[in-house]
Design goal:
Radius of gyration: 27 Å
Distance between the termini: 96 Å
Helix content: under 10%
Structural class: mainly beta
Number of strands: 34
Shape: elongated
């Protein structure tokens, strides 16, 4: 017997409705109401005028006492001082929800900075965590999730205030299993995110437009940073550090940074979409916007097992790998990077002897670095690509390959070119400290076991300086190096170089040298 089509349609619709009702009942019986704690149910107003600190912290405490859960911020503007995280808690900022750091006054402010186990070998901001808008210490299984906003409006390094001030948007110390995902940080203070001694840290899909450091990962292990955009003209965008803030040296290790973008546009203009470039004269160190990806400067514990891939630099400083306080910087792979309008060295590798570290700490090492597939347009030629160890402490085992750099020429008004480049081994590591270099392309000094493969240099105007200078180099191999023919000077300068070869390169002939004191080509 055939069943009429209308009957089949009716039965099918009834079946689908029944299944839908079953799943609706099932999900309502186990999910949100039991584990979500709405801050408005605990007294938060979210009106942008009422101070919601106590209500927010009471909500977190209620969730903690229940064994954990999600502290939920519905749409609204929540004015607050220090928010204290607990284990097994997620903060969820819904679309339209903003947590604003309140301005301190003479009676009330942020939590006071806790006593530091050590504050001698790093800046004050690295040595304290409680003086923050959101902080947690010795916690596990915590999350801050978006798509809302954390606005550090009241965060400052200044004063004067009688009440404690806050200088970080998010600060975490000795935590594990942490997820930071999907939200936006505006004006995050001295640090948008400071994670110290945090293991198993995931930072994903954040937008940060801030007035100092964007993301600082210090003494952390097993870190994944992905899909983040950081605009930080006044300091570094994504910065790996290994300070002595925990009271002992601990490396930052097993880190991946991928699919991220860093820039140095005027503060706030990344977020509002105008991307302005008018505030370079306001940058605190007077050397132009920062905004880069960097290892260091704090480098007591060192760095190891790190990869960076598929990242963009725009209108900021270049990639910097620095160890100057005794740490080992080793086993790093960096690939697929594009840069545009770079303020100083597109690539800066520095082993130094600043030694802001306990007495008798030996000098560190910088070794086994592989950098490939880099494209740089409109880089600052004053400081070249700068790779430098110090006497008797060479950088080791460096491979640079498949790199193209378009350098803008030296301004004709610049006449203070360094003829003998100072060592500055105890100075703060920054390319500008060396002054204008005597070459525009590559300056490599105190290094051994170096390879340059498939390197192309281009000039965006006239240049009278040579392209490449090598000093105190042992075992260097150059293949397929192409630089513009310079009619007014040599293209390659060698000084105290041994076991050197260059082949298949223009405008150079093939060269094999066992040892030479001084030579130009």
């Amino acid at each position: 017997m055939k069943i009429p089509f209308a009957v089949l349609s009716f039965l099918s619709s009834r079946f689908i409705l029944g299944v839908s009702l079953f799943f609706a009942v099932l999900t309502s019986s186990w999910a949100f109401p039991e584990t979500a704690f709405n801050v408005k149910s605990y007294g938060a107003k979210g009106d942008g005028n009422t101070l919601d600190t106590s209500a927010i912290n009471n909500t977190i405490q209620a969730a903690s006492k229940a064994g954990g859960g999600t502290v939920y911020f519905p749409a609204g503007t929540y004015l607050s001082y220090s928010i204290r995280l607990e284990s097994h808690i997620a903060l969820y900022l819904d679309q339209g929800a903003t947590i604003i750091g309140a301005l301190p006054d003479d009676e009330i402010g942020y939590d006071a900075p806790e006593p530091a186990s050590n504050d001698k070998f790093q800046d004050f901001g690295h040595s304290h965590w409680h003086n923050s808008l959101i902080w947690g210490e010795n916690l596990e299984d915590i999350s801050i999730l978006g798509p809302g906003i954390i606005h550090g409006k009241g965060l400052t390094r200044g004063g004067p205030y009688k009440a404690p001030i806050g200088n970080k948007a998010i600060a975490l110390k000795l935590c594990r299993n942490v997820i930071l995902k999907d939200f936006t940080i505006l004006y995050g203070g001295h640090f948008g995110i400071l994670a110290t001694g945090v293991d198993n840290l995931t930072i994903d899909n954040l937008k940060i437009d801030t007035n100092r450091d964007g993301i600082d990962v210090d003494c952390c292990k097993n870190v994944r940073i992905s899909n983040c955009t950081v605009n930080s003209p006044w300091d570094d965008g994504i910065c790996l550090k290994s300070s002595y803030a925990l009271g002992y040296a601990r490396p930052t290790e097993n880190v991946t940074i991928t699919n991220c973008s860093v820039s140095g546009f005027d503060r706030g203009t990344f977020y509002n979409g105008t991307y302005l470039r008018n505030e370079a004269h306001l940058v605190p160190d007077k050397e132009g916007p920062t905004g880069r990806i960097k290892f260091g400067t704090e480098s007591n514990g060192g760095f190891k097992n790190i990869t960076i891939s598929n990242c963009i630099f725009e209108y900021c400083r270049g990639l910097a790998l620095e160890t100057v306080d005794g740490g080992l910087l080793e086993d790093v792979t960096i690939t697929n990077i594009t840069m545009r309008d770079i303020i100083n060295s597109p690539i800066f590798l520095r082993l130094g002897g600043r030694m802001r570290a306990p007495d008798d700490t030996p000098l560190g090492a910088l070794r086994r670095i592989n950098i490939s597939n880099i494209n740089v347009y409109n880089a600052d030629s004053r400081f070249a690509t700068l790779i430098s160890g110090i006497p008797d402490h060479p950088i080791e085992d460096i491979r640079l390959s498949n790199i193209s750099i378009w350098y803008r020429p030296l301004d004709s008004s610049e006449t203070n070119i360094q003829q003998e480049v100072p060592e500055f081994e105890k100075a703060y590591p920054e390319p500008q400290k060396f002054g204008i270099l005597p070459v525009y392309g590559f300056f490599i000094r105190h290094a051994k076991n170096i390879e340059l493969n498939n390197i192309n240099l281009y000039l965006l105007g006239k240049e009278t300086r040579p392209a490449i200078m090598l000093t105190d180099i042992n075992n260097m191999r150059m293949r397929n190096i192409n630089v513009p023919l310079n009619q007014k000077s040599e293209n390659l300068l060698l000084k105290d170089v041994s076991e050197f070869s260059i082949k298949d390169s223009k405008p150079f002939k093939d060269i094999e040298i066992q040892k030479i004191a001084t030579k130009t080509y």
